[in-house]
Structures are given as C-alpha cells and as structure tokens.
Amino acid sequence: MTPLVRLGTTDSTQAFLKRHPEMGFCGVMALGQTAGRGRGGNTWDSERGAGLWLSARLPTPDIPSGVVLQSAMLAVIEVLAPCGVSLGLKWPNDLVAWKDGRLVKLGGIIGEQCENSVVLGLGVNVHSAPEIPDRAIPPASLSSVGAVNIPDTTDLAVGVLAAWQDLAKGRAPAFRWPGPGYAIRWEDGAGVCRGWESDGRLAVQTKDGAVLLASGDVCGVVAGSGVLLHPSGG
Fold this sequence. Notes:
Blueprint: E1 4-10, H1 13-19, E2 26-33, E3 51-59, H2 68-79, E4 88-90, E5 94-99, E6 102-114, E7 117-125, H3 153-163, E8 175-177, E9 183-186, E10 189-196, E11 202-206, E12 209-213, E13 221-222, E14 228-229
Parallel strand pairs: 1-2, 4-8
Antiparallel strand pairs: 2-3, 3-7, 4-5, 5-6, 6-7, 9-10, 10-11, 11-12, 13-14
C-alpha cells in the first residue's frame, strides 16, 4: 500500500513531492494549497478544506504515455461511484458532470514523468468550488451536483491511491465529452469529433480529412456554439 502523508497548507503537493525525492513512492495530500497547479502552467484554486488536493509518486505504469492521466482520472471516477453522481471524462482528462443541463468541471489532473516514476497531481472540488467568470465549463463541486455519501478527504485520498496502483485496469466513465458527432474547433483547425483513440488522442474529421489530436496540440476545444472550452486547470 502506498503510504500517505498529510500536510496542513503547502504551496502545492506536486512541488512538495518534487522537492523531496527521498520520500520515494508515496502520496501527499494537503488541506489547502497556496500555489496549486493546473494544466499548462495555470493555477488551481485550492481553498483550505474545500476539496482533495493530492499528489503521488508512482512507478511508471506499463501503459501508453498518452493515456496515463486519463487512466488516473478514470480511477478517481471509480472511487467516487458510491457518491451517486454520473461523472464523465472531458478530453483530455478533466473530471466533469452535468448540472442544470450544463457541463461543469469538478476536477483536473497533471502529471510529470521522472526517472522510473511518474508524479500525478489531482485536484477535486469536493465541498465548494471557486467562482471563475466567463468559463464555458464553470467549476463546480461534488456537493453542488448532488453527490451523497461523500467520503472524508483522507479516506478519498486513500481510495484514490489504492486505485492508482493499477492504472492498466479497464475502466469506463458514465460518459465522455466530446462524443462522436460533436462539432469542435481548436487553434489550428475545426472538425467533427469521431471518437477517442486507445492511445488517448482525439480523432477528428476535418474538411481536409481525418486528424488525430494529442492534448498538447489543443489550446482550446470549442463547441459548435462557439464557446471556448479550456482543457486546463482552474
């Protein structure tokens, strides 16, 4: 079992683990973060007591690198299944749900490859979420989307760490977004989603033919309505 270290408040659990390679394979959770990190260098609002702020150094899993973060978030969805909420995976690896007919973001994950290991960083809004204006997919919390039987964040961290021991396990979310047929556009093009590839890329049909997008290729996925959907932390 991967040991779990609990902190009060730190800059970020991800930075803490990187500063302490001597800790080996372990998980670190914090009650709050003053400099939480999201994708692409974005900040992640991590108010004390509002959610689960967790990082873990793990052996590099024997799966394609493009699906490591997706597999890690699918494991989180599995752990949260008893909460009774239909949870989905927004490409490339965000935790989302539906609230009043609108897609909302509950969590995000980042990862850094190190020598013979990977450091995963997870943020899940459990009890509350920050207010961030003008987000096409606004933040929300598990509590706000009707979750029940929400575990204590320490118990949740323990469950996630246990699930992360087997990232090769086949898992499926209640839904994936975008699904086939969704009109999308990004910085360098536009097209219609054909589906998710087994290596984590998004298959898109454009007017010039089919393309495969990796998460690094997209700075924004945009629905047919023209609303920018940032695949980044927040």
